[in-house]
Specification:
mainly alpha
Length: about 625
Amino acid sequence: MLASVAQALSLRLERTLELGGALLLALLLATVTLSVVLRYVAASGFVGAEEAASWLLVALVSIGLPLASTASGLRIDLFERGPASGQALAARGLSQSVGRRNGKTSLWTRRCAPRDLRALFSGAITLLACIVVISGSGKAALDLGGVSPSLGLSEGLRPAMLSAGGMLAIVAILLRHLAESRLVAFVLMLSVAVGLHWAAGVAPTLGLASPSVMLCCLALAAILGGTPLPHAFIAAAYVTVAFGASMPEEAMVAAALSGLSRYLLTAIPFFLLAGALLTASGIARDLVRFAAALVGHRRAGLGQTVLLTGVLFSGASGSSIANAAFGTAAFMPQLTARGMPPERAGALIAAVSVLDNIIPPSIAFLILAAAADLSTGKLLAGGFVAGLVMAATLAVAIHLNGATAASANRASAGECRRFGVRALPAFGLGIIVVAGIRAGVVAPTEAAALAAAYTLVAAIVKRTAVQEIGAAFRQSARETAAILLLIGSAAPFAFLIAVDGIAAQVSSAASWLGSNPFIVIAALNLLLLGVGLFLDIGAAILLFAPLTLPVAVSAGIDPTHFGVILVVNLMIGGLTPPVGILVQTVGNASGVPVVALFSASRPYLLALLSALALLSFSAALAACF
């Protein structure tokens, strides 16, 4: 009886959170779209639009905490092999460790298997992260004073929202365990989490290694144990306090809030929504049919079409994460429907998304220009060349990999025209987004809002069912919450690495390599590829660009050339485990296990590394003359 009640409550809580997220997303879309319309139609602005957007993003992340705590889309299990996936086991906790004795559920009726211990470990770390969020956010809410400049809201409300999300996460985990008659498992995991939280707070400083080294080791251990990535980052950052890290809980929350409150990130939910609405309305299907009619009869024709679309739309979102989410929602169903395995389709979309921050306009190059005092125009020009080189290597990889099955017959001219007319709404979206940004008419976030509004109107015109539109909003809100939670949780991680001085130490070590440009650029490539394994590209640029650029310049390498190579390195990190944010985004949006996506990404990763080697060799060769 208790299990059925808990299951019903768990389902209702999940649906309520998804509905709340959908309403927040609708409000966010209305806010930004209204701001754009007022600015261009009425020559006035919407005071506080950017501030309101950042607050709504925090609210979405707060909703994402309980959803991510019980879902499997943000975790990696490299060890599970069997009918039940490691992700499912981790999401369900100790479901495989319970047995039956006298008709009743018992926790230890048989010897625990390694996967059961990993589930226990993962659950305890997840609960520890929730406790850290609750405690740190509560302290930050009490410490922060003043009100927001435009909205007049108390600054303490933002961390308070995160604290509420942490509480709901624990409630969601409890309900899940009660629904599966595993209260003992929950109590055990909660006891371990509370004990770890207390011990890390009162233990004397341990000098086993530098805080940053311990941070990386703890985070990696949690990730390999099947813990969701955001919870692994949060818990590892907190436990590192016992190893000398000078970052209390409230400072961690402040860093996370700062990381996820950037207005640019608002483009992510809008492009997610645009992709979901394109799929729900059938526009994406019409676009893929048109592409298939043109080149689908060729080897890997549809895969090449996805690549060409990525090149043409590159820079449209200003975010590779948003582009990956958009591509997953818009093209994944069509690719799989035409015979491509889901993991290969997802890997292709993730690889093509790398180009979004390379081919201009590129937000990454704007950040780099500000961080390293480089010419924005020269960086964008270099990014255009680098993007074409990377696209060429990806085209070869797609062709050799046979990414999509060819159509049986070549389409007639009449069929091409008919499918082209049906695909016109998709081309209208491209004009709004790409032309709007490249002409300087709208900012990336505003273009994303207009894209979402455009697809919403197009879906209504095509008489898409209200239920399908509502489902697109709920799905996009949930995926947005998960992605932003990952970005926000990585902010304390990057801050601790910066405070510990690891970046400066590594840069100093690299300077010992001498002045041979080939050796220097090879060493810096290895360093930056390693950095890209863990850090968000924005944080990595701000940390390592000012430190590595002088090393490259001292070897005679042109600073603009190296700046382009730096961004290419860090973007490739979006495909590499354990974090692989682009792969995580595609996996979360499509439901395909990230382990399978990482495996399927290898041909495209090799192609991008080949492009990096070519660009690096050219830069080093130019330094010799």
